[in-house]
Amino acid sequence: MSENLRSHNWFGKKNKDGIIYRSWMKNQGMPIDMFDGRPVIGICNTFSELTPCNAHLREHAEMVKRGVLEAGGFPLEFPIMSLGETLLKPTAMLFRNLASMDAEESIRGNPIDGVVLLTGCDKTTPSTVMGASSVGLPTIVVPGGPMLNGRYKGQTIGSGTHVWKFDEDMKTGKMTQEECEVAESCMSRSIGHCMTMGTASTMAVMVESLGLTISGASAIPAADSRKKQMAQLSGRRIVEMVKENLTIDKILTREAFENAILVNAAVGGSSNFIIHLIAIAGRIGIDINLDDFDRIGSKIPLLLNLMPSGKYLMEDFYYAGGLPVILNELKDILHKNIITVTGKNHHENIKGHTDCYNDDVIATYEKPLIPDAGCVVVKGNLALNGAVIKPSAATPALLEHTGRAVVFESIEDYNARIDDPNLDIDETCIMVLKYVGPVGYPGMPEVGNMALPKKILEKGVKDMVRISDGRMSGTAYGTAVLHVSPESAIGGNLALVQNGDMIELDVTQRKLHLHVTDEELASRRKKWTAPKPAAERGYVSLYIKHVMGSDKGADLDFLQGNSGSEVTRDSH
Ligand code: FES
Ligand code: MG
């Protein structure tokens, strides 16, 4: 057994290299029997005080270690680049692929037989899963868990979702700066990631539905002691997975990805799910494309009543029974021929855990909150490769809408003019924002849910159609057409839209059409010049040269696929 483990190629060596591999490790106080061929478990930690959503993960690592030791493994924690949504400029998304490279090379280059990924904030989940997928060891994810419900003046408030509301209230004079600072404290009152069904919760649900966590892991609040139990149990389980050689590629099959798409629709998950799932699939070598999301997910009903689509938060989801209840509602359409980290499929995992304790939080498949909830892909001359809209976060009346384009040529242009009282705009117009795609910004930030002009908000109007090649925070809402591909910075037709053009959005027909003739577009194209690259050196320059379109998951082209776990040469 032990000689088959890859860690044997380090710690099992009887020569000079073996001395080097073992001796320096012993400076941490490790006795010789730790090197006797027991499975070495890497604990890949995205802890950082600059990623507040993950700042509690050192404690989770200790719980995982406890479980690994109990099961006879050798736990070794290591840090990788941590990506926090709130502080990192210009956007954490710019560095998702970089962090995935960090995870991949850290796992492959070290004496690790199985890996536990400690995740939390949005990008920390896809980046680590992408990296681990490109190596292919037994892998388990321990999601860090959401914050407890926010409460402000007796009202439930959700991470992110209420930021947009507070911002609007400040603009329209309904809230003072002092009140806002109190509300901020109320919103983030415990450890954990955003507790709305934003991208972090979406990613936690994604890894559970893919089969990469132990059952029921995703909804447990970070502050709940059962999260620590889950971490400990995951530590025990990864040791078994190494013994069973249950590698990540055996879990991440096409059926697993299809299950994740079904579940994401049913929970009202973030539109960012699409980009990250495509990127992960690309590493495993499975072709998931935009049309798969529409085909598999768009007719799935919304079962989970969480902000931003609904009114509750992750804590309520956990008390209502968590993801096993949703999986049970979907049991007739979920693939059974999959295997999760437990070695069993979802149907087996959830046995005995299917009672719903609050049917206002989790609806049934027969009586859902919304009949067709999943993200929809629209196409047309404005988005030849597709664009994405999340109908459950949109205003139904705007899903079929033709309006006059009001164009912002950059995010700076938008910021400068949006609240100008002389801006020629009304609520029937369509706001268009250019150059916020992967190459354009760079990094495809979450600016697609552009705030409405103050003068329109003051009328009490809450939503307008907005179109961009950027993303939208999973905690946000609005009729936002996102991820327009090809993006404007590489010459997609979005770059050619002018003020006054008529744009037609028809979600039922899956249509996004710019009412401008092909001849006119061709003549505009002749006059168009590509923007100057955002960087000439460093990672950003590499990113701009190699990033693929958002419809391809915005991964770097050379990171697609996997290289296995083998490293043949020694370091000395
Ligand atoms: Fe980290 Fe929302 S900001 S999860
Ligand atoms: Mg986000």
From TrEMBL:
The keyword ATP-binding does not apply. Coiled coil: none annotated. InterPro entries: Dihydro-acid_dehy_C, ILV_EDD_C, ILV_EDD_N, IlvD/EDD_N, Sugar_Degrad_Dehydratases. GO terms for molecular function: hydro-lyase activity; iron-sulfur cluster binding; metal ion binding. Gene3D superfamilies: IlvD/EDD C-terminal domain-like. Residues 360-554 form the Dihydroxy-acid/6-phosphogluconate dehydratase C-terminal domain. Keywords: Iron, Iron-sulfur, Lyase, Metal-binding. Signal peptide: none annotated. Residues 38-349 form the Dihydroxy-acid/6-phosphogluconate dehydratase N-terminal domain. Belongs to the IlvD/Edd family. This is Dihydroxy-acid dehydratase.
